[in-house]
Amino acid sequence: MSRTPVVAIGTNGGPITADLLYQLEETIGKANLTPTGFLCTPSLKRVLKKTPVIASGYEPIWSDETGGVLGVTSLTSTNCPSALTKGTSVGTCHAAILGAWGQMLIATWDYELVVDKYTRKKSGNIEVTIYTSVDFAVLHEGGFAVIADATIA
């Protein structure tokens, strides 16, 4: 069984750098795929917007003008892990995911729509609730690469 590749920063995690992001890109390229999107935590985005691509430069790793990171669509989510542990960095490591998102399959089924016009009738409201089942699968695990030990200074 194959697994999604992980690019490790260090024994205790560490700051994310442009070179680590290029390693993510290279890892996906070795699977003959092209990355289409980047996902990280909002706090990690803040750090990437202040970190230059090269140590003596001014161009940040995350640039809204170029589409984010590595020129691909880049988004943040609080659902991206931000309390991971690596070595002595306990509960402080953040995840970053680069992927060929076309390799992600999302299936939904078993819809149920419930319309409740009675519970909130005195306030003139109707409550609508939708229930569904959702599942996710990765078609080619080499289409994603993860950093799971990025620390924020």
Please, could you describe this protein's structure?
The chain is mainly beta. It has a domain at 18-102 and 139-150: 2-Layer Sandwich (hypothetical protein PF0899 fold), CATH 3.30.2320. Helices cover 14% and strands 37% of the residues. It contains 2 helices and 8 strands, in the order H-E-H-E-E-E-E-E-E-E. The two termini are 36 Å apart.
- How far apart, in Å, are the first and last alpha carbons? 36 Å
**Shape, principal axes of CA atoms:** elongated
Give the structural class. Answer: mainly beta
What is the fold-level CATH name, i.e. the topology of the domain at 18-102 and 139-150? hypothetical protein PF0899 fold
- CATH architecture of the domain at 18-102 and 139-150, please? 2-Layer Sandwich
Task: List the quaternary state of the chains.
Answer: single chain
Count of strand segments: 8
- Average pLDDT for all residues: 93
Major sheet characteristics: 6 strands, mixed
In sequence order, what are the helices and strands, one letter per element?
A: HEHEEEEEEE
Give the proportion of residues in helices.
Answer: 10-25%
Radius of gyration: 20 Å
Total helices: the number is 2
Given as residue ranges, the uncertain stretches (5+ residues, pLDDT < 50) are: none
